[in-house]
UniProtKB/TrEMBL annotation, chains A, F:
Entry protein name: Alpha-aminoadipate carrier protein LysW
InterPro entries per record: LysW (IPR005906)
Phylogenetic lineage: Bacteria, Thermotogati, Synergistota, Synergistia, Synergistales
Organism: Acetomicrobium thermoterrenum DSM 13490
Automatic annotation (TrEMBL), chains B, C, D, E:
Keyword Secreted listed: no
Location of the Semialdehyde dehydrogenase NAD-binding domain: 4-143
Enzyme class: oxidoreductase
Protein name: N-acetyl-gamma-glutamyl-phosphate reductase
Gene3D superfamilies tied to this protein: Dihydrodipicolinate Reductase, domain 2, NAD(P)-binding Rossmann-like Domain
Originating gene: argC
Species: Acetomicrobium thermoterrenum DSM 13490
PANTHER family: [LYSW]-L-2-AMINOADIPATE_[LYSW]-L-GLUTAMATE PHOSPHATE REDUCTASE-RELATED, N-ACETYL-GAMMA-GLUTAMYL-PHOSPHATE REDUCTASE, CHLOROPLASTIC-RELATED-RELATED
Record-linked InterPro entries: AGPR (IPR050085), AGPR_dimerisation_dom (IPR058924), AGPR_type-1 (IPR000706), NAD(P)-bd_dom_sf (IPR036291), Semialdehyde_DH_NAD-bd (IPR000534)
Entry GO terms, CC: cytoplasm
Subcellular localization, as worded in the UniProt entry: Cytoplasm
Length: 57, 347, 347, 347, 347, 57
């Protein structure tokens, strides 16, 4: 059985594994935002600061 | 079952692209390729990438074309020259997709305003359907006469309809950047390589004819919109940047929901991610050669200003791809038939 | 039946192209896409044109990759790093197509000469087949280990084998022009846009590693051949100009017959016309995005000098396309499966 | 009299351009070219176009640089690294033109806001003059420390100051298109040719650091301005499109008068004609290699909407050209000395 | 003293470049700019980069042109149309530099062979000097009629004369790559951006008219030479790759000595270094906008095969630059007057 | 029933219609050469001079 959490950016449903840990970073497959698990019960995520590849601009 | 197609303007840029698509279409076969100037020449003499397609098929002229029995006719001819061809085909009961601007507008008054002369057959305007399957799929299925789309118009409409139909657009400034294939296959001073190369030529400061289609399809008031065109160093591609003032403050999540709902079940519409930032806003490079329209957006922190960016390949989603998509529906085929080619990236 | 594939180097240029092809392949499915650096990231985060393909598939690392059961593994990794991966897959009984240069040469001596160090596992060189289906289709069908091709090598071999196997090449000076995708996905000074843009950088005056493959496949003597490389302003594409001194005087008609016979039943080999003159000699532009190799030629009036020009898309016929073509044969599929996409022209 | 100059960051993009200009400057001679990484190498090993200039001059490192007596130092170094160099030169009584962003803003608070950390020496901000001679010629003449300009900022300021100083700008949406040389000489993923080529990458949807300079120099409120950046397929060049809502209705003739007056006696500012239409709005192509800034405009028939377009060569008017122009004034020379080279058109 | 010049073909590509140069020439002033089609139009209406040059000077037609007293006439007109203009000017005692091909060859027989019709005034061929100051400086000084140079010819001759005059060239295969400005200012199908863009069009497999000049100036036998042309994605530039079989084995040092001696005191000829390897062989990019010709070479380890590469800007050293250089000599000025502009790199 | 003639450039078989006329120009589908019918019996063709589009080089 899979759990879901709502992405805080695009409000889409993100499937998460059962073994999720606090502090883990997951990526929203819809909008690509990185979400940090800040609590497990209730399952809550917050946007993680973006670590960008160097695209040089 | 295999349907037979005639392609008018087959020696041109958009007509050549219809040929390119149909060369691999499982259910539509090119029966005749029409060109007055290239009459009797092999198709590959004009289109080198079609060297091994269509065997010894040669271009035929107008009279010969009308003698061929076909199920559907694609007209990729200069605007103003399609109407008489449409009339003849409709009489014969042949379905028509007209890529020119001749039947894109519903209102004869609008046509006259934007194209500078009265429409020769306003009844056609009433019976024709605007050929954007994402908006008019149902009507297209039941129609015998479907227009193509202006490439810039298609790019803008596909990127903006989710917002427009919610009435969220208060004011909008549209930038469109276009490649050189948009102007067709005939050399001009503006297309002469030394001048066209690496250009950033701003050629319409406030409006462009395609605005007529945009206003019509998005139900916007002309005064709320400006549209600026720039010719840029690409061959294929159109990119819209729409700077919008929203009519009310919205959350980013709401916009996402709007777009996801609007694009769901639209096989050729893609939504860009919010992250990584360099992929958030699409460019034509990402869709070259495909029938995809890719849209990304970003909301200003004030919740009222918004930038929407959409990218297409002007010859595909902006012309031949959408035309074949419409013809699929008209012929009772699956919308995506023959149109699932991947973008060629990077190119 | 659907076969499962692993792609190594899936975050790279050639690996990305294998993904692009397999996204539409009717019989091969991507089971795992391997990348150490992009491990756990969605594929579209690296390849924006694959946004709606492969669902939520993420890159996996090396260890995880070996845990997946696959029918075939494509290795698009730097040369020198493929051998150990090949060994593991062969042990498991998995077929391998190795796009790197690790098993392209049959002779360990040649390998050492051209790559500067002894080959770590010369037995592989003996068992591997050079992966150009146009020359080795039969062996490829029966092999578990097939090499990819050097993109420049493939371009030259396909353009020259009809002459070479008749022993007609006495001396040959090869010019190859290449696009920037040939050097892979990692930025360098040479690929930095301000310097790479509009370049005509001549970077190998007399030879190039791919010459090893050319000599091997065409049975030519090194001393009879020079090969000069120029980086030009394209992203995709390789073009060979071969200036040949023929070993005997021939008529143009004989050359035509040679090429027609050699290219007959080779679905991806195309011959250019003699006329019109501007289409006689092909350019990469005409095959972009496709798996085609297009060849044209012209004979000097002295009957001894000849120019052969061949154009390919380096990522397709020069890498991923040929690799998938080989894999089709290895898996018992039709050679052209998943590879019939049209060139995107003009682009 | 001949003045001696030191160029820091001489191995970089902007520093290389200072070298290129000074190679022909009648009154300023390159005394030392500073680079840590290229220390002891000949200048032409980095800059091939300078092969026959500067004889056997080699790059020198930082310590050696400070030992040379020079009249003026050009700092073309990354922002954040200039301040300590400035301090040393000012101490020695050497005049400085700092092309980096370190002393462009007058307010330390603004600096912190836009650059993310407190300024290490706010006193410098007070003593420095913003180095745009068209606006601050008099102060520059009397200053020992002059900043360079942000290339996008220079483009915008020069195109807009005639309107801004009349208080005519109510709201403004700025589009800037930039070439690849703007990001300097170091390769990144974004500058990697396969990705950078033919790009239309929108990378700052609403603001860009250079906006700080624009607001400062044009006395505009941040909320009235947005600024969107797009990387395009050129190496040199920046182009501004400014979509303006004027604070009052004006006649076209008034705008012409404003611009003519403002540009009079500004040797590098050019005004485009109103006709022919395709030359009304400038593109970087028209000024490549020169120190010119070219501006055109068009007024909407409502008299309130206006489009202003300005084009420069980012390495010249946007960096090295303007820096040398400022140095001319600081050294008591004619503003145009060494800067009258013609644009290279078409290129 | 200031000399007065007439420029014929001033609306064209080469004529425009003469204007660009003379706009900054200290001693030659444009007295009349001739164009039938642009008669009475301001010069900047055709040449946007000349917006602030030449004040209100307008193009004049042929008759008006002959009424102006000038010291020198530059003819940048299509080949075949120069002779009658030359005749009139010579009659009036006006010096002429004819950029067309009308008086480049000394032999009327050669002219007929390469240009397909008898020369209308063979006496001119005898009196005219081939206008390459590096080879014929002395004769040019004393002549009233000097030809311009074929741009490809100039590129080849400058790169090869040090070898040729030593009799070292036994056989030679020349590749020339050219930009789009070479074909002039008139649009054609081949210059149409969608087709010309990113092209690698091989359009002359074995010879090109400019070969006539090369054979003449280097005293080579036609049979020992082939020349292949490729149109590439640049606007300005010509690059020669000459694959040479030397008539005897030589040491690299000897070649260096030959080139250094030959290029000494030739202000526009530059020799590339042997190292670093990526700068050894020049590209047009390195000389864009300048009057320089840059040559590099590399010797095969067999001591008999050699590659020479030369790059120029076709509009400068290949046309207008060399023409002005010749005119300087004819007028008793310093050869480099008005021609010392730096290349614009990178661009 | 269709007739064939050999192309004088590429030696390929070119199918020709029954109503062929002397002086008619046919194009070889293999090599694109234009062939002029110089005699009908025996059917003989010669290469026709090329009329090129203006590709501008
Ligand atoms: N290019 C695009 O991106 C694009 C996008 C969307 C829509 N369209 C529309 O598609 C149409 C064709 O555009 P294009 O860019 O392909 O132009 P094009 O390359 O100039 O081709 C026009 C074609 O029409 C034929 N033609 C000209 N006059 C004709 C006439 N009186 N009757 C019948 N055929 C005639 C020409 O061939 P012959 O002279 O040999 O007959 C030529 O093949 C236009 O209406 C355009 O608005 C183009
Ligand atoms: N580009 C062409 O036109 C072309 C044509 C023919 C053949 N090829 C061959 O294809 C291969 C890949 O070329 P490319 O151009 O695609 O290069 P690329 O873009 O640099 O990609 C190389 C890939 O290999 C992976 N990789 C690096 N080191 C590795 C290692 N030790 N073990 C496993 N994977 C490793 C990299 O990803 P991670 O670091 O994330 O694992 C990357 O995805 C080369 O052998 C090349 O010769 C290329
Ligand atoms: N490119 C433009 O269009 C443009 C326009 C306007 C202003 N600018 C400004 O000009 C400056 C240089 O830009 P660019 O584009 O030329 O960048 P660049 O090509 O990266 O060059 C930077 C130069 O700075 C040197 N450098 C690096 N770190 C240094 C340090 N800590 N101390 C001293 N020197 C150092 C580097 O050489 P070594 O590492 O060998 O010393 C290199 O030569 C930047 O501040 C930029 O904002 C650039
Ligand atoms: N482009 C190059 O790289 C290059 C290099 C070396 C030499 N050249 C030579 O320079 C000459 C001009 O070449 P281009 O490339 O500048 O060509 P272009 O751009 O086509 O210009 C030709 C000019 O000649 C004028 N013209 C045409 N017919 C004329 C006639 N019968 N009498 C007088 N003027 C006539 C035209 O203007 P109007 O019709 O308005 O009078 C036009 O200004 C050619 O002979 C060419 O071989 C060119
Ligand atoms: Zn999300
Ligand atoms: Zn034939």
């Amino acid at each position: 059985m899979s759990k879901f959490v709502n992405c805080v950016v695009c409000e889409g449903k993100v499937e998460v594994s059962d073994e999720l840990l606090e502090g883990e970073i997951i990526t929203c497959p819809d909008c690509g935002s990185e979400l940090e698990v800040i609590s497990l019960d209730p399952l809550t995520v917050a946007e993680a600061p973006e670590v960008q590849e160097d695209w040089g601009e | 079952m295999t349907f037979k197609a005639a392609i008018w303007g087959a020696s041109g840029m958009a007509g050549g692209e219809v040929l390119r698509i149909l060369a691999r279409h499982p259910d539509i076969k090119v029966e005749c390729a029409v060109s007055k100037n290239k009459n009797r020449q092999f198709i590959w003499q004009t289109h080198p990438h079609l060297r091994d397609e269509f065997g010894t098929l040669t271009f035929c002229d107008h009279d010969e074309a009308f003698l061929k029995e076909v199920d559907i006719a694609f007209l990729a001819v200069p605007h103003g020259t399609a109407v008489s061809v449409i009339e003849k085909y409709l009489e014969k009961g042949t379905k028509v997709v007209d890529l020119s601007a001749d039947v894109r507008l519903y209102s004869a008054k609008d046509y006259e305003k934007w194209y500078g002369s009265p429409h020769p057959n306003p009844d056609l305007l009433i019976s024709a359907v605007y050929g954007l399957p994402e908006l008019h799929g149902k009507e297209i299925k039941e129609s015998n006469l479907v227009s193509g789309v202006g490439c810039n118009a298609a790019c803008c409409i596909l990127g903006l309809f989710p917002l427009a139909r919610e009435g969220l657009i208060e004011e909008i400034r549209i930038e469109v950047r276009v490649g050189s294939s948009e102007a067709g296959a005939t050399p001009t001073l503006g297309s002469h390589h030394p001048y066209r190369s690496r250009t950033l030529r701003v050629y319409e400061p406030f409006r462009h004819r395609h605005l007529a289609e945009i206003l019509q399809e998005l139900s916007l008031e002309e005064d709320a919109v400006t549209m600026t065109m720039t010719a840029v160093e690409i061959v294929r591609g159109a990119q819209m940047l729409a700077h919008i003032r929203l009519s009310e403050k919205v959350r980013e999540g709401e916009i996402w929901r709007l777009y996801k709902n609007a694009y769901r079940d639209k096989p050729f519409l893609q939504l860009c991610p919010a992250k990584p930032a360099h992929l958030r806003l699409p460019e034509p490079k990402m869709v070259t050669g495909s029938n995809q329209a890719m849209t990304g957006f970003t909301l200003h922190e004030d919740g009222r200003r918004m930038l929407v960016v959409t990218a297409i390949d002007n010859l595909m989603k902006g012309a031949a791809g959408t035309a074949v998509q419409a013809s699929n529906l008209m012929l009772g085929l699956n919308e995506t038939e023959g149109l699932t080619m991947m973008p060629v990236y990077p190119v």
